Amino acid sequence: MANAIVPAKMQQVRSDRHFFSSSDDNAMMKQIQATHAPDGREFDVKPLLHIIEDIMHRAGPTIPSIVHPSIVHHANQAQLDALDDKAHQGGFSDILELLAYTINRISCEISCKCSGGGDAHATTVSLFNSLSNYSWDAKVVIALAAFGVNYGEFWLVAQLYPTDPLAKSVAFLKQLPDILERAEFLKPKFEALTNLIKAMLDVTKCIVEFKELPSQYITPDTPAMLTVTAHIPTAVYWTIRSIVACASQIMNLIGLGHEYIASTTEAWELSSLAHKVSNIHSHLRQQLALCYQHIDEKSHIEAYQTLGRLFETPHIDNMKILRALIYAKEDQLPLFDGGPTKKRTSIDVLRRKNVLLFISDLDLAPEELAMLEQMFTESRQQPSRPESQYEVVWLPVVDKTTPWDELKQKQFETVQASMPWYSVHHPSLLEPAVIKYIKEVWRFNKKPLLVVLDPQGRVVNPNALHMMWIWGSLAFPFTSLREEALWKLEETWRIELLADTIDPSIFTWISERKFICLYGGEDIEWIRKFTNSAQAVARAAKIQLEMLYVGRSNPREKVRRNNATIQAERLSHVLPDLTLIWFFWVRLESMWHSKVQHGRSIENDPIMQEIMTMLTFDGSDRGWAVISLGSSEMAKAKGETFLQTMTEYDLWKDKIEDEGFLSALNGYLHELHTPHHCNRLILPGTTGSIPERVVCAECGRPMERFIMYRCCTD
């Protein structure tokens, strides 16, 4: 009797081949579309799909001789437990109550129609007719659940019959012992069956995922959704067609004898179906990726706009703002405390405090970090002072288009560990909308920012880093009003403002009424000539002169070598730490940006003119020098002019007695000055806002604007 059935099965295989090679898919899909008459009911089939996954993972060949371990898609116990939890969570009982009868009816239909041969397409169409009132996602999940009942029962008996008497009796009726004795012959079939079931599950999960896309962010007329809507009926057809093929395999193992078991034709058919269904899955995944891209764009725009509105709305404290900036679920500790505890902490530690958001990428200049850390640590030494009442939080902005690898993780952890303040536990906690806001509204572009939020979460300064570099914690509460007030206190260009605390000796020299000479540049020959000439003039004029070398901005190896030479030859004092040289120049740049932010220029602000002069000195390739006495008197010039003035001391020394040393020096410098000049002002293009018009500090004419790219390796 078994032999009589085999030709019918061979006929089914030939018929299936015909459908694989047929190009008339349109006619076939018209036939399927004609069966589709949904009644409008919507089902949440996700809990049912979890049950199906659980069955497919727990069922299946477990005998090594039947299938290679790499093919069996058994989950480990943790995965199975997770699936079990999903399968039995809320919603499953409700959906099962609604669909249990339909599932069992379809299961019976599959068993009957796949047992006695027949045309696979006709069986598939019959199932579509039985499922005509359901949506496409419900059709495929119900059909897969119905197959799961049959598949699960088959393997339940196969797995239990060696140990369970009831299972053993049922197994004998299904001839399972005979089947398993021929395990080697079954290996290709079960490998193909396992692969096809996996492909069917993948496509089904994909279809359900499409159904669950949030309608507020993606509409049916979106191009990707239109494409998917057109292809889902085809995906459902081939998944149910594959269900029919798998069910036929299981049903025909029972009672078909050695001839069927030995045949490899069915394995080829299942493999071909698996290939087709896998291709369908790949196409759906591509479309799903496009849909998620569209959803992300829409949701990011919405989140960005919400963040903007949040900053415009008054609040009683800063919690809403900080939670919007730093992704914080109730069960999360989004901050890392860089203080003594070195532990993760809640965002509540920042409630109603002045918060300085330190925004940067991972490539922080060590000098910058060192100076900021020093200022922060000093402010914590007297915590009761008003200017110590603030917290700093590092927001690391990273490029999310590049993969986050172990190297970046280590770099992040190294930077985070060096900070004594709070930081975001991980860069991924900053949502794309927040990064967009930081870049577009706060104009972050690689150069660090220090955005100041008051206790109510209002932005009181979009970048207080300039204030921090100029005045340190004295700039508290770091508002724009405080910045303006501090500039009003700095009425004149003084050596204290220029040099600040880069060397404690400066304040001693001022109190002792010594002449102070700050000089810079990289030309060591000029440095030798200038320092020797200046010291010779000081001896001749009988004045006390202290000289300090401040290098140039972005100090590198050449400045380090100059420091060593100056010390070895005892030419002058130096700043032994290059961080202090960097700080001297970054303060000047910060003064320039601070003044620009407040609408100042050399036409309306004398201090701005002095800042511009110093920055153009640094922009030249040669040296420069400034000599001051006390707090305010000052003479300055470019290197060659100053050197000439010193070497020609005899030409102006007679004026010293009447005018004083600095006045006589200034007078001769002015005599040597010529209208011809070529001044360069070099500013980091990513720091703050660069004005369209900048005038020359020397002649007042508008300076030409160039873009410069520099790579300095010394």
From TrEMBL:
Occurrences of domain Sieve element occlusion C-terminal (ranges): 482-713
Domain Sieve element occlusion N-terminal, first and last residues per copy: 23-315
Phylogenetic lineage: Eukaryota, Viridiplantae, Streptophyta, Embryophyta, Tracheophyta
Transmembrane segments annotated in the record for this chain: none
Domain of life assignment: Eukaryota
Name of this protein: Protein SIEVE ELEMENT OCCLUSION B-like
Organism annotation: Davidia involucrata
Gene Ontology terms: biological process: phloem development
Family annotation (InterPro entries): SEO_C, SEO_N, SEOA
